């Protein structure tokens, strides 16, 4: 798939708007336990309101799945087609895969899970299909997604299943969230 070009703006010492950087992303990470999956880290913020200034590049920190507390994260993920091998044995590797992306606790896969990539984060995630198609898998329902479709994923247990036979590229914007008390209690009881 085409490489991602990032343009980062900032200010010079006089407050004039300038281009700080224009070029390829410095952090592009293949996920070892999910061959073909690649995270393209674009940017993140770590506060609300976000600090505006010439701060260092936040994507140079270790890879993390969820957004920072009170922050946001934007990334592109290339997702290969699900293979028969992955569907049969992928669940065995998910703790390691989610550890590589900085959140082993996000994996919710169990013996009877509908997909090996089932996971949950306490965040609001906007997922946009940029190329290809994807199936959003929930606990007991699915939705086929096409280019331009946008998912507003609100802390639900989910997976992304690529059943198309070709690569899919999705853009994700993750916003830190907090479960409402009633929902937190229901999730704890599961």
Automatic annotation (TrEMBL):
It holds the Pfam family Cupin_2. SUPFAM superfamilies: RmlC-like cupins. Residues 117-173 form the Cupin type-2 domain. InterPro entries: Cupin_2 (IPR013096), OryJ/VirC-like (IPR047142), RmlC-like_jellyroll (IPR014710), RmlC_Cupin_sf (IPR011051). PANTHER family: CUPIN TYPE-2 DOMAIN-CONTAINING PROTEIN, SLR2101 PROTEIN. This is Cupin domain-containing protein.
């Amino acid at each position: 798939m085409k490489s991602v070009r990032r343009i980062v703006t900032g200010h010079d010492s006089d407050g004039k708007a300038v281009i700080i950087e224009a070029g390829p992303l410095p952090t592009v990470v293949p996920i070892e336990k999910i061959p073909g999956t690649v995270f393209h880290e674009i940017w993140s913020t770590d506060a609300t309101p976000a600090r505006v200034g010439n701060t260092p590049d936040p994507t140079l920190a270790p890879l993390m799945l969820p957004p920072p507390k009170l922050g946001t994260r934007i990334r592109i993920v290339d997702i290969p087609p699900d293979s028969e091998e992955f569907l049969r044995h992928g669940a065995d590797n998910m703790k390691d895969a989610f550890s590589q992306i900085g959140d082993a606790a996000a994996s919710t896969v169990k013996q009877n899970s509908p997909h090996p990539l089932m996971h949950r984060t306490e965040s609001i995630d906007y997922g946009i299909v940029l190329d290809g198609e994807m199936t959003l898998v929930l606990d007991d329902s699915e939705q086929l997604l096409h280019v331009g479709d946008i998912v507003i994923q609100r802390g639900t247990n989910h997976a992304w299943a690529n059943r198309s036979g070709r690569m899919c590229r999705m853009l994700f914007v993750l916003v830190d969230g907090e479960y409402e008390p009633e929902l937190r209690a229901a999730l704890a009881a599961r």
